[in-house]
Design a protein that fits this description.
4 helices, 4 strands, globular
């Protein structure tokens, strides 16, 4: 899980219009979950786009409303969150990155 998480985290961190929110992947007691904000899109819009590609992601503040507000993400509906589990494959991570790249390339 953590190798796949690191792959996704590293790829998302390299995107110009995307800001990863939360601890670094090597943080102690970190779960393989990544949250991010996508410039030009609400968190719900990102999730809706990913859903059309059969990728499950969640949007919102995840019980950290004040933190999301202070970080400036509340106005765009919070952040998008994705989790890795024991059933996730390398191909699914690669596909997710391809889909994020496609969204990055779109003009809104």
């Amino acid at each position: 899980e953590f190798d796949l998480f690191n792959r996704l985290y590293t790829a998302l961190s390299s995107k110009e219009r995307l800001q990863v929110v939360g601890p670094l992947p090597d943080a102690k007691w970190h779960t393989p979950t990544v949250s991010f904000a996508f410039e030009g899109y609400t968190a719900a819009e990102v999730c809706q786009f990913l859903a059309t590609k059969s990728i499950c992601a969640w949007d919102g503040h995840f019980y950290a409303q004040r933190a999301i507000e202070v970080l400036g993400y509340l106005e765009q509906g919070g952040v998008t969150r994705m989790g890795i589990n024991m059933y996730t494959s390398q191909e699914e991570i690669d596909y997710t990155i391809e889909c994020i790249d496609a969204l990055t390339a779109k003009d809104k």
